[in-house]
Structures are given as structure tokens and as C-alpha cells.
Amino acid sequence: MQSFESLEEFLKGQLPATLELLRQMVGINSWTLNPAGVNRLGHFTAEQFAPLGFAAEFVPPTNLEFGNHLVLTRPGKSSRSIALVSHLDTVFPPEEEVRNDFRWQVEGDRIYGPGTQDIKGGTAMMWLVLHALRSQAPKVFEDVTWKLFFNSAEEMFSPDFRQVCRARCDAQTLAALVFEAEGRLTDERLMVVARKGRASWRVTVSGRGAHAGGKHSQGANAIVQLSQILTRIAALTDYARDLTFNVGIVAGGAGLNRVPHEAVAEGEFRAFTPEIFKQAKAALLALAGPGDVRSPADGFRCDVKVEILSENLPWPRNDASDRLYSFWKQAGDDLKIPVNLQERGGLSDGNLIWDAMPTLDGLGPWGDNDHCSERSADGTKVPEYVEISGFVPKAKLNTLAILKLVEARAAVS
Ligand SMILES: [Zn+2]
């Protein structure tokens, strides 16, 4: 690389173009269940990376309610590759954006708008870093094969994206770098080296209905049974082991004069390690079977059914991610930017790929209030935003760390 000063200068010069790119991306509604919008953003993104030499491939999702995944590839002179990962979708339906007047708004050092932080700001960061590499380290830029992966439905969990990434990477893939937002602790920039796994579940209780007046004792009350089960599920939460269970939705009953014959609840659980995740799942499934609530008349029992609806396994702390992190730490030391690591509770595409190639997350810019669109006059509700002044330092850090990573691997091979 030429010098830190020249890198900084270059990045500052590119910032207006980066923010203009972000503005245009934020202007395209790409709610996960708006596949036309997601596809429009996919084509727009492909056009923006084309001048850097990237060819586009649109990959149809398994779930046809979603838009196409996007893969952009730039073949390098060597077979060594680096994967950069982002997603196209956001959590905001178009009506919600209109209702809350949630759109691109620049105020001071903040830009508000759907996806500014999660994750269009990350895609803009990716674009900026690749420009910096081309300009400041052209040999490395030309040498490495760059593979950019954009999930069309990250916010609704699309397990097929796992294969989209894995099928296009190999042992020569040095790293998968995920551009979800940066963490911050005072002035420390936090890189993500692990994420919790998450499973969603449904409990269905079948009891026996009865007239609440004349035949009350014939009934086996499904709601009463479900409430007992939910108390036991809630008690499985164990903060000391970073295991959380959340009961999210509950429904049951059809009238006040009927002993309810059915009740249903749904929720999720999360854990950092595969062992605790597995134990949690077993404890949940063990609640299935004949219940404690019976009809006083003849002992008819409620029946409890437990289903796992979806499962996204943990990305646990591991050596490959830690080693990758060390390049960001070194780059931070060189640039006098405090860098640290974190294990994060939320999921990302890192959960799908960490065991196939060394994975690091949190390369995006810093912002806050992701998944929020409401704003109140008294300032107690603030929508999603990204911080403008965070782009250049973070891009500097990412660029230098990627160069260190390539250099270290060149020394080995
Ligand atoms: Zn999100």
C-alpha cells in the first residue's frame, strides 16, 4: 500500500460518492416480502459494482416469496479468494415507511432511513473498501478473486443461502467477511467473532371442550395446561449460560362459556454454544406428551405437542474467526483506532458459513436502532440511522486489515 495518509485522502474523496450510492439504495424499498423491490435493488447493486469488474449472477431462492440472491464475482490472477457478505432485504414494508415518514434524512452526523445501518450502509462500505484496494493496493486487488454474496432474505431466514455461498467457495477462500453493522463500546470498534443460534418453536395443547356451565368437570382446559407449560419454558432461561427462551405469541379459546379444547403458543430460544443449544432443544422437546391438566370427571388428560419450526445453529467462538480478528486488531493498533471483539446475540449469515471458511462479522459502519422506524417528538423513539463520520475510519481499518490478511496468507503458501 502507498501510505496511511494517501489511503485516508482517497477515502475522504470517495465519501460523497459512497453516501450517494447509499442514498439511492435506501430509496429502493427492499422489504423481504417485496421481491420486486429486492430484485430492483439486486440489479442496481450489480450495476454499481460492474465498473469495478464484477460480473453478476442472480440465484433464485428456494422460497419463491423472496427475491433473487445476488452473487458478484471478479476473477483474480491467483486462485485465492475472499468472500464479502451482505444482504439485500430490510424489515420495513413500504406502507410502514410511508406511515412513519421513514426515509433518507440527513441530520448532523446521522443519516436516518430504512437500511442505512442494516445493511445498505454495509454494502456501501464494501463498495468503498474495494475502491480503496483498487486505488491503493492494485496488485492485491488484481491478485485476489473477490466474491460478493447478497442474501435476498436474511431478515426472514433463508437457509438456502448457506449453499449459495459454500458452493462458490473452496479451501483457497481466505475469509468470509460479513458487513453487518459495527459494535461500539465507548470508542472501541467491536468486531463480531461469534453469534448465538436461534430456534423457533410451537407448542399446541389439545384438551377437551365442555359447556362451562352444565358440564364443567367434563372439560380438560387447554389454556390452563398451556400456561403451565409456558411457565416451565420460561424457567429454562439461564442467563449464566447465555441461554434465553422467549414466549412470543399465545392464542386459545373461542368463548367465555366454553372450556377451551385447544391452545397454541410460539416462541424462540437462543444460545452461543452448540452443546447448550442442543440441551435446550432436548429440554423443550421433553415437555411433549400427556399433560397434568385432566378432566375431573373421568381423568381425560390434555395432550402437549412440541414442534421446532426453524433452526439456525450457533456460530460459536472458534480459532479461525479469532485468527481473522487478529488482523483487524493489528490494523487498529497501526491506525490508532481502538478495536475489540464481541459475541453477539442476533443472527447473521455468519451463522451459515463460519464452519466452511474463516468468518468475521461487523465490518459495516456504526449506527443504531436497526429494525425501528418510529420517531416521537419527545425523542424517546428514534428510528434506524448510520453515523457519517464512522465511514472513513472503518473503511481504513477494513482495507488495512484485508491487506494484512492477504499478506500473511501469501507468506504461508
Ligand atoms: Zn436486520
Task: Kindly list the characteristics that best describe this protein.
alpha+beta; 6-stranded mixed β-sheet; 5-stranded antiparallel β-sheet; 11 helices; 20 strands; 27% strand; binds zinc ion
Structure description:
With 413 residues, the chain is of the alpha+beta class. Helices cover 34% and strands 27% of the residues. The protein is built from 11 helices and 20 strands. It has helices at residues 4-26, 35-49, 94-99, 120-136, 138-143, 161-166, 222-234, 274-285, 319-335, 350-353, 391-412, and strands at 55-59, 69-74, 81-87, 105-107, 110-112, 145-151, 173-178, 183-185, 188-195, 197-206, 210-211, 244-252, 258-259, 262-271, 289-294, 301-312, 339-344, 359-361, 367-368, 385-387. The chain has a 6-stranded mixed sheet with strand order 1-2-6-3-7-18. A 5-stranded antiparallel sheet has the order 12-14-10-16-15. A hairpin with a 6-residue loop joins β15 and β16 (301-312). The longest helix has 23 residues, at 4-26. The two termini are 21 Å apart. 46% of the residues are buried. The mean pLDDT is 96. It binds zinc ion. Zinc ion binds at residues 91, 118, 155, 370-371.
